[in-house]
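dumping this here before i forget
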Amino acid sequence: MGKLVSSIIMSLDGFAAGTNGEMDMFKLEQGFFDLAATLIKEADVALYGRGTYKIMQAYWPTAGDGPNVSEHNKSHAAWYNKVHKYVLSTTLKSDAANKMTVINNNVTQEINKLKQDTKKNIQIFGSPGVVRSLTQENLIDEYWIFLAPVTIGKGIAVFKNMNAGINLKYLGNVPCGSGCIGLHYEKINK
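structure:
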């Protein structure tokens, strides 16, 4: 049975991106990419929201091509092209050619079935709206929160307007360079 693992970068004031989705305020270094490489080794399924999937699909299918590509891009592109991708969306259509299935209703039931059917982890990269809604449904098993040493004042919040709290157990942290730290938590079942 797989676990649902969320990995998201956020500012000290709780934003995953600026108001228009910009993320250039986050400075990522090799430590971040090393941890991402570890996370993909532990996952055989990806889960995204519509917006994040469109960003990923525009970049990763060919990001590993070419002679001067970083090792991170090579390995992440290979993983992205290999894994099945599930997308929470009411507007997109499933695309077998790109190994993408849309979940647009019965989300809790579909995620629980996916957990049962998955051998390794189900990895969420980004997708703050998905993280927020799946947290409210108590579906995320582990969180990697990459806390960046920046405040942005306004933007796309990770844990805003939640109608339910969660209890987490701290598992540790990993320095990721430029003052960013990966904080690792698991959900405590009540």
